[in-house]
Write a structure and sequence with these properties.
The chain has helices at about 20-30, 35-40, 45-85, and strands spanning about 5, 10-15. It is mainly α. Strands 1-2 form a two-stranded antiparallel ribbon. The radius of gyration is 16 Å and the shape is elongated.
Length: about 90
Protein backbone atom coordinates (compact mmCIF):
# COMPACT_ATOMS: atom_id res chain seq x y z
CA UNK A 1 0.00 0.00 0.00
CA UNK A 2 1.31 3.44 -0.90
CA UNK A 3 0.45 6.53 1.04
CA UNK A 4 0.15 7.91 4.50
CA UNK A 5 -2.30 7.35 7.30
CA UNK A 6 -2.72 8.62 10.86
CA UNK A 7 -1.50 6.47 13.72
CA UNK A 8 -3.30 6.02 17.03
CA UNK A 9 -1.43 9.06 18.37
CA UNK A 10 -2.46 11.09 15.35
CA UNK A 11 1.01 11.34 13.82
CA UNK A 12 1.16 10.69 10.07
CA UNK A 13 2.85 7.42 9.19
CA UNK A 14 3.51 5.23 6.19
CA UNK A 15 0.39 3.16 5.51
CA UNK A 16 0.81 -0.43 6.70
CA UNK A 17 3.86 0.43 8.83
CA UNK A 18 4.65 1.99 12.20
CA UNK A 19 7.18 4.29 10.55
CA UNK A 20 6.18 7.94 10.93
CA UNK A 21 6.83 10.88 8.66
CA UNK A 22 8.92 12.23 11.54
CA UNK A 23 11.11 9.09 11.45
CA UNK A 24 11.73 9.52 7.73
CA UNK A 25 12.42 13.24 8.17
CA UNK A 26 15.06 12.51 10.82
CA UNK A 27 16.71 9.78 8.74
CA UNK A 28 16.75 11.86 5.56
CA UNK A 29 17.17 15.46 6.70
CA UNK A 30 19.23 15.02 9.86
CA UNK A 31 21.12 11.78 9.32
CA UNK A 32 21.64 12.22 5.58
CA UNK A 33 20.20 8.89 4.44
CA UNK A 34 19.06 8.76 0.83
CA UNK A 35 15.50 7.87 -0.11
CA UNK A 36 16.82 4.58 -1.50
CA UNK A 37 18.65 3.76 1.73
CA UNK A 38 15.53 4.37 3.81
CA UNK A 39 13.37 2.30 1.46
CA UNK A 40 15.84 -0.57 1.47
CA UNK A 41 16.53 -0.53 5.20
CA UNK A 42 12.83 -0.57 6.17
CA UNK A 43 11.38 -2.53 3.23
CA UNK A 44 9.37 0.44 1.96
CA UNK A 45 8.57 1.44 -1.58
CA UNK A 46 10.31 4.49 -2.98
CA UNK A 47 6.84 5.97 -3.51
CA UNK A 48 6.03 5.61 0.21
CA UNK A 49 9.26 7.35 1.23
CA UNK A 50 8.64 10.11 -1.31
CA UNK A 51 5.07 10.54 -0.01
CA UNK A 52 6.40 10.94 3.53
CA UNK A 53 9.03 13.40 2.29
CA UNK A 54 6.38 15.43 0.45
CA UNK A 55 4.29 15.58 3.62
CA UNK A 56 7.35 16.74 5.55
CA UNK A 57 8.04 19.50 3.03
CA UNK A 58 4.43 20.67 3.35
CA UNK A 59 4.27 20.51 7.17
CA UNK A 60 7.92 20.59 8.18
CA UNK A 61 7.61 23.33 10.78
CA UNK A 62 5.15 21.30 12.84
CA UNK A 63 7.21 18.13 12.49
CA UNK A 64 10.46 19.93 13.35
CA UNK A 65 8.78 21.39 16.44
CA UNK A 66 7.70 17.89 17.49
CA UNK A 67 11.26 16.60 17.02
CA UNK A 68 12.66 19.44 19.12
CA UNK A 69 10.05 18.92 21.85
CA UNK A 70 10.91 15.22 21.96
CA UNK A 71 14.60 16.02 22.32
CA UNK A 72 13.89 18.51 25.10
CA UNK A 73 11.82 15.91 26.94
CA UNK A 74 14.66 13.38 26.74
CA UNK A 75 17.13 15.95 28.12
CA UNK A 76 14.76 16.85 30.96
CA UNK A 77 14.36 13.18 31.87
CA UNK A 78 18.14 12.71 31.85
CA UNK A 79 18.54 15.67 34.19
CA UNK A 80 15.86 14.33 36.54
CA UNK A 81 17.51 10.91 36.60
CA UNK A 82 20.91 12.37 37.38
CA UNK A 83 19.50 14.54 40.18
CA UNK A 84 17.84 11.51 41.81
CA UNK A 85 20.91 9.33 41.42
CA UNK A 86 19.08 6.84 39.20
CA UNK A 87 21.22 4.89 36.76
CA UNK A 88 20.29 5.15 33.07
CA UNK A 89 18.96 1.86 31.74
CA UNK A 90 22.04 1.31 29.58
CA UNK A 91 24.31 1.76 32.63
CA UNK A 92 22.48 -0.53 35.08
CA UNK A 93 24.21 -3.77 36.12
CA UNK A 94 22.83 -6.97 34.64
Amino acid sequence: MIGLTASVGGEPRVAGHRITVQDIAVWHERMGWSVGEIASEYDLSLAAVHAASAYYFAYGERIDRSIEEGGALVEKMKEQMSSTGAEPLDKQPE
